[in-house]
Amino acid sequence: MRVLHLPYGSPMIELSNALRSKGIQSTSCHFNKHPFEFKPDICLQLNTLSNQEQTKKLKQFLKESMLHYDIFHFHFGETFFADKSDLKMLERAGKKMVVHHHGSEIRLKSIAQTNNPYVRIKPEWTEEKINRNNSMLANYIDHAIVQDYELESYIKTAYKHVHVIPHTIDANQYTPRYPSPKNASPLIVHAPSSRHMKGTEFIIDAVNELKRSGLSFQFQLIEGVSNEEAKNLIAKADIVIDQLLIGANGYISSEAMAYGKPVICYIRHDLVAKYPSGLPVVNANPDTITAVLKNLLQNPQKWKELGVKGRQYIAKNHHAPIVADHYIDIYKTL
Hints:
- GO terms for molecular function: glycosyltransferase activity.
- Keywords: Transferase.
- It comes from Lentibacillus persicus.
- This is Glycosyltransferase involved in cell wall bisynthesis.
- The chain has two domains: 2-170 and 320-333, Glycogen Phosphorylase B (Rossmann fold), CATH 3.40.50.2000; 172-318, Glycogen Phosphorylase B (Rossmann fold, 3-Layer(aba) Sandwich), CATH 3.40.50.2000.
- It is 41% helix and 14% strand.
- The protein has 13 helices and twelve strands.
- By secondary structure, it is α/β, with parallel strands linked by helices.
- It has helices spanning 10-21, 51-68, 85-92, 109-112, 127-138, 149-155, 195-198, 200-212, 227-236, 251-258, 289-297, 301-317, 320-333, and strands at residues 2-6, 25-30, 42-43, 71-75, 96-100, 143-146, 161-164, 187-190, 218-221, 239-241, 263-265, 282-283.
- It is globular.
- The termini are close together.
C-alpha cells in the first residue's frame, strides 16, 4: 500500500510518519517551502519557479506519482491542480483517493454562527467557493476526513462517508515537562497561525489587564519562528493558550498537552461531550478569557494536574500508532 500525502501541513507530515511506522509506504509532499521549516519527505519548492515552470513540474510530478502510488491523500481540499482536473486522470488510472479537511476551507459561516457567536471566517473562503470546491472533490472522492465534530458539521452531507479522526501525535517525540507550582513568574505562550482567526487581540487584552492588576507572569507570542523553535518554546511554557474563536482545539493544543502543559482553548459547549472522555482543556472565550486565565494563574496547584491529564489524554486518543490504524482501515475499504 503506497500512499502520497500533499500539498502541505505539519499534521500531514506527522500522519505520514505514523503510517510508515505501521508498515505503510507513505510519503509526505509539500508543494512549496514553508516559512516554518517543516520537514516533509519531498518538497517541490514550486514557489521558487515561474508559473510556467510550476505547471510543468506539477504535471511531471503527477505523471511520476501515478506510476508509483496507489492512494492519493489530499489535505486542505487541494489537489495537484487548482481546477481539480487531475482527479479525473487519477480516477481513469484506477487510483484511490481520500480528502482531508483541516479548517477554513470548509467552515461555513451560515452553519458555524448558529452555535458560535465568536466564529470568524477567512474572507477568501466564501460559501460559494467552499461549496464549489467540495462538489468537485465529491465527484471523485467518497471518503472525507476531519479531526473533530466542529468541522464534521460542515461536510456531513457533502461526501458519502465522513470520518472524524483526532490529530496524530507521536507521544514518544514529546518529553513531558510539567509546570512547577512553585514558579513565581510562570510563562504563558500563544502561537497563532493567524491572529485574526485565533482571537489573539482578546488574549493580549487579558494579559495586559492581569498584569496591571499586579499578577506576576511572563507572556510570549510565538510567531515567525521555525516549527522546531515553536515546539521548544511550548516545552518551556507553564500555560499554553490556543484559540478563542473557532470552537474546537487545534494542533497546538494537542502538542501542548503532549508536553504536559495546561491548555486554554474555546471548545463549543455543544461539542464538549463529543470529544473522547477526559478532555482536560480549560474552556475560555473572548468574554471569559480574563477571568479564566486569572483563576488558573492563582491556582498553580492545578498546573501539573492538568498537564498530567493532558499527557494521558494524548497518549490514549492521539498517539500515532493508535490513530494510524483508523486511516489504514479507511484505505482498506477504498
